[in-house]
Design a protein that fits this description.
By secondary structure, the chain is an alpha/beta fold. The protein folds into two domains: 271 residues, no CATH class; 57 residues, no CATH class. The protein is 22% helix and 38% strand. The chain contains nine helices and 21 strands. Helix 2 packs antiparallel against helix 6 and helix 7 crosses helix 8. The radius of gyration is 21 Å and the shape is globular.
Length: 434
């Protein structure tokens, strides 16, 4: 797969700003030094990417299309209002993009276009958030990305509807790889929400290697949502890096429902006093699938709060990994950090690896973490059955209730309703119960 480092045309590379090319070259060097991760590396010990590395991916060709029927099906399932920017195999698709309803003060544009128009405005942010020396797939993305979204939320702007970044992947002629790159900047005092959706068709094989960088300025409030419903034979690797300034509020909900192999890295740096950050996640992992969530919440300054809740629902011979690290630096007094990881095993062959980590170098803090792995409460199942509810339905409803603990925090009504309806159908129909 190293040929993916060379997917970008040399003339196009030469046309980019010098600072971006310098960062690309640094990322290239980091990737060549690291190579693909193996299970000998501690942070990849529970996730084997040999199937991904062994797949003969090619760069997604120009001109890949989706049909009007496929877009209509998405719109029917996802009753979302607001602006939408669409990418097909990582490339901007203007024919399906709708930005007419953007409120004044918000700009949503293809990243390639933003770089061409005013690259200097992006120099401060792009490529600064993710450490390519520690994340080999992020290094590959930084080297090979061609497009993505630039979302700029102006100072004091309030957006009621979410800004949707829709990624559709199609690979009818063989495995392809895409590397979308997103940059979201929420200026002082702004209020908005951003939704990333990744979806595929049929059982096609492809790789999505996405990176999202987020800057939340002083006093801003940003909700971020990521829903992954890739093809059951796809590979999805995502990396999100967030930096918060003073008195800012950021929350992220990550919902993983698809792909054969998923790896999500999310890092949150609280870099200004009285900031509040939330990282929540739900993984529904069916037979033969593997999901790995790695999180880092970095309390760099005093008087900040963080909250983290990750739930996993596993069936068949599946595996779910959670490694959550909370770092409280020496000067970060008055930190309040809470972390919880709960996992529900529906079958005896499912496997969970949960590794909560607290690194505390300050002495005046409140930090807690907890992790549980277990099956459904048989007393609760009996309670349902005693009231005339069949056993399968009882187990489905209890599983849905467990998952909905995370979904209840989703504040976009259309998104929450869609996810609740889909999971209720999956669990009560028995699709995810075996």
């Amino acid at each position: 797969m190293k040929e993916l480092l060379n997917t970008r045309d040399e003339q196009e590379r030469a046309a980019g700003p010098e600072w971006l090319e310098a960062r690309r070259n640094t990322a290239r060097r980091h990737f060549e030094e690291q190579g693909y991760p193996t299970t000998r590396i501690e942070e990849w010990r529970h996730t084997n990417v040999s199937a991904l590395v062994g797949t003969p991916f090619e760069a997604a060709p120009e001109g890949a299309k989706v049909t009007a029927e496929q877009i209509a099906a998405f719109e029917k399932e996802w009753p979302l209002q607001g602006a939408r920017i669409v990418f097909v195999n990582g490339r901007y698709a203007p024919e399906w993009t709708q930005t007419e309803r953007l409120p004044h003060g918000i700009r949503v544009s293809p990243l390639r276009e933003a770089l061409a128009e005013n690259a200097g405005a992006l120099e401060e942010y792009l490529g600064r958030g993710v450490d390519t020396g520690r994340h080999p797939f992020a290094a590959l993305n930084a080297t090979a990305f061609e497009d993505g979204a630039f979302v700029h939320i102006g100072r004091g702007t309030v957006a009621e509807d979410p800004i949707v970044l829709l990624h559709l992947s199609t690979a009818p002629d063989g495995p392809v790889a895409s590397a979308p790159r997103h940059l979201v900047v929420a200026e002082e005092g702004s209020v908005a929400s951003v939704l990333e959706v990744y979806a595929g068709f049929g059982e096609e094989v492809y790789l999505t290697n996405a990176v999202t960088e987020v800057i939340v300025r002083e006093g801003a409030s940003l909700d971020h949502y990521k829903v992954q419903e890739e093809s059951p034979k796809a590979f999805h690797v995502g990396n999100m890096a967030v930096q918060q300034e003073a008195r800012s509020v950021f929350s992220s909900h990550s919902v993983t429902l698809g792909a054969a192999l998923t790896r999500n890295d999310a890092s949150l740096r609280l870099d200004g006093e009285h900031a509040e950050g939330t990282l929540n996640g739900l993984s529904v992992v069916s037979d033969g699938r593997h999901v790995d969530n790695h999180t880092l919440i970095d309390h760099a300054v005093p008087n900040c709060n963080s909250h983290e809740t990750y739930h996993g629902v596993l069936s068949g011979k599946s595996r779910n990994v959670f490694r959550g690290r909370i770092l409280v630096r020496q000067d970060a007094q008055k930190t309040d950090a809470k972390q919880s990881n709960r996992n529900l095993l529906l079958t005896p062959d499912a496997v969970v690896d949960t590794i909560p980590q607290l690194e505390i170098f300050a002495d005046d803090v409140k930090c807690t973490h907890g992790a549980t792995v277990g099956a459904l409460n048989e007393d609760a199942v009996f309670y349902f059955r005693a009231r005339g509810i069949p056993e399968a339905a009882a187990r489905g409803l209890l599983t849905y209730a467990f998952a909905n603990t995370v979904l209840s925090g989703v504040r976009v009504e259309g998104l929450r309703s869609h996810l609740q309806h889909e999971l209720l159908e999956r669990f009560t129909d028995g699709e995810e119960m075996e």
